[in-house]
Amino acid sequence: MINFTLNGEEKTFDGDPDTPLLWVIRDAEKLTGTKYGCGIAQCGACTVHLDGMTRRSCVTPISTVDGSSVTTIEGAGGREAEAVQAAWTAIDVPQCGYCQSGQIMSAVSLLQFNPKPSDEDIDNAMAGNICRCATYVRIRQAIHDAAAKLEG
Q1: What angle do CA 114, 22, 50 make, to 5 degrees?
Q2: What element of type H or E holds 52?
Q3: What confidence score (pLDDT) does residue 47 get?
Q4: Spatial contact of 18 and 61, defined as CB atoms under 8 Å apart
Q5: Which side of the chain, N or C, has fewer Cβ within a 10 Å radius?
């Protein structure tokens, strides 16, 4: 039995301990905001927060989250998440939208640890989050806009 918190709710998983966290989130818990992109932690579509840090859920065995807290896009909240989501909407960041939950989760984490990131900070934090529609310029601008909103 693997016990963990998912978006603030206590959960138990009684299955194969090698099952990727992504499949527990999507199949067992029916939260489909976290996407499957590549299955090898290279695209970022599956990014979640594990104990407050970004994690690629497609390669994270559920056994490694025992006793931990997992946050998905459905559970993202707080000042940073609200600012990022508002900025994303205000400048129409997504095109197809498939990668956006992973992009947002990475952006939220960045702003939690660095409330005033430079372009270089953003590029480093967002590296590995692939957008096949190439909305990188809008993503960077949205992060800057969210940071400015958080400053007040």
Answers
A1: 35
A2: none
A3: 98
A4: yes
A5: C
Other Cβ atoms less than 10 A from the Cβ of 84: the count is 28
Question: Domains along the chain?
Answer: 2-75 (3.10.20.30), 79-151 (1.10.150.120)
Q: What is the 3-state secondary structure (H, E, C) of 60-100?
A: CEHHHHCCCEEECHHHCCCHHHHHHHHHHHHCCCCCCCCCH
DSSP label at residue 20: B
Residues of the chain falling short of pLDDT 70: 152
Q: Please report the pLDDT score of residue 29 as a whole number.
A: 98
> Which pLDDT does position 152 carry in this prediction?
65
* 112's tokens: 């939690």
Amino acid at the residue 69: S
Which 3 state secondary structure label does DSSP give 5? strand
